[in-house]
Amino acid sequence: MKHMNSEVKEERTSNKKRIDLFLVPIVLIAAFLNLFKIWTDEYANAYYTAAVKSMLQSFHNFFYASFDPGGYVTIDKPPVVFWIQTISAKIFGFHGWSVILPQALAGIGSVLLLYVLIKRTFGVWAGRFAALAMALTPIVPAVSRTNNIDSMLVFTLLLATWMLFRAVRTVKFGWVLAAFAMIGVAFNMKMLQAYMVLPAFYVFYVVATKITWKKKIAFLTTATALMLAVSVSWAVVVDSTSADKRPYMGSSQTNSVLELAFGYNGINRLTGNTSVTGSSHKQSAQTEQQTASSETKQNSNSSADSSQSSNQRKSSFSQKMQAPGGGNQNGMFNTGNPGPFRLFQKGLSDQISWLLPFVIFSIVGLFAGVKFKGPYTAKQKESLFWLAWLLPVAVFFSIAGFFHQYYLIMLAPPIAAFAGAGAVALWSMYKQHNDWKSWLLPGGILTTAALQVYIMSPYVSSIGVAPIAGVGALGVILALVLAIRKQRKNSLTNYLGAAAMVVLLAMPAYWAMTPIIYGGNSMLPSAGPDSSSGMGGPPSTATNSKQSGFNGMQPPGSSSGNSSSNNQMQPPSGSSNGGQMPGGSSNNGQMQPPSGSSNSGQMQMPGGSSNNSQMPNSFSSKSSSSKRKSGGMNAEVNQKLLNYLTKNNTGEKYLFATTDSTSAAPYIIKTGKPVMAMGGFSGSDPILTVSKLKAMIKKGEVKYFYLSGMGKGGQSDVITWIKENSKEIPSSKWQSTSSSAQQGPSGNGTLYEITLK
Residue 756's pLDDT is what? Predict the structure, then answer.
């Protein structure tokens, strides 16, 4: 105990010391990468931004995280992060940047927390390098610059880690409870993803805490019970509330938070079996992919406008668009094919894996000489914690069937921790040993440089040969020189070691800046020269920005005037299924309309049969707006439609109803009025029945329905009834003919009116 008390006193004394001046530029770098130009993102991820707009209007909407102001359906995640975003919007006003700000600050906070965690045990230079590696991990700022959840999730888990480390140092049960309760809070941010760190928490507490086994078991059992109680607290309240007194739980099939947690946001992410609970999850994936694709066009209006060549660099969706991931469901969103080397495949490696070889060498060095039965040093215990975080998460992403690239931020803390701790450890071994351990540093530098060359090679047309050759050549030269000078201890050797670290961080730093340079995708964030596409693969070979996106996919009520007879989508090279997209059929590698469609020349949207859902192959990259209206949704409203609906509203609760959140979100953001997404996010949640809709119409809650090709799914009976019992409104009364209308993924649709007595 005397030793523990001395550690506590030492910690308090160190806290009174001056600010680490080396940390200041690292924090400034993190602040720049996370904050710069977030004010240009007007809508962010419009699905979540619309929810914040709704949550600002009433405590009912706030508590349930309602997508729409009418409280019809919730978003597909728990509410904690959106509570924070709503508070931010309440303080600073409702803007795209105000809902992004909490995540950006969380990204900076994660850098600081990692510095604190590593510095105490591994030394100040290890803490500095770990913090810098965290700040420059490309996927970290890419996610933190959006209103997606993951940046806040990682910050919360690192805060729980700080509490756990303190619990071990002070041997106080209260800190154990606090650490596990914080994981429960994280569960209410993104459900089961928060539990990915539990192996590290259990292993570390068992190995590192100097108390009896009875106390360890008792403490961990109690802390786990508290974590579970906090985790399900909101779910129990929601699920026990009568369904007619709360919104429908979006993206669930049984209107249950727990089903959402363990199904759509849980086991289905691992198995990729989107058919387990019906078609909703498959259509959700398709909807996300298609709406994110449209953002390629929208983001061409952003920060990259200052570069004459930016249009070519952002041409990730060309006339011959590749289906991400090899054309099969497991490879959606360019997440590669499951297997032991998945994290080294393109689309994932450039988001997170830049330092992985160095991390592997660092792990070998940090655990060198460790005996299974101990005793373990503090460095070895904490290294075990980061290893128990890294390995299970890496295994999950290596085998999971359905996830997005930005989920990889979960790997950033352990990778950065090992990069920092390992850099100091390998340098010490290099200078102090003459055995195999002294070769770990040059070996780690050489293999890491080789991997970085491999990661960059598909992007040679965007970044040029020079940086690729430079990293490769410098990595080889510095590794060889360090190997040759292994016996010499002088200042030149120190400079060579520092230069090697700079070389290894140079390209991750550039990649981390790409969302600023080229524009980002707020719905499916990723880093890289094609970051605005949100698909994270190497850039296409399109020679013209007018061939790099979707035209003819309009906001409700706008008309394109453009069409293309050559709008077939080609499969990616090497695809074994002929390039078939979910729900489609293949014919010689060309994308065909889903079965049953009479329009052989057009690509049908999920659940739709309208021939208005065609996907022509060109758009204009010019914009009259200085703000990014991205967000992966129709980030622009049809003003003529809005005027018509507003003028003819006779007291109805909902401005109009539509199939899915894609069409509804921009109108909620623009007006703050209720818009009904009948089938939730993807348009296929089993929320509405014909009898329920009849009752709503009779009560005067809704009378206008905008139907496009998207989101039919499980609500086909409802849509059929609407079409059979409604009056079609002539398009001349509400449809915009402006050629400058902002385009989006909904396609042209039809406006219907129903009045029942």
Answer: 82
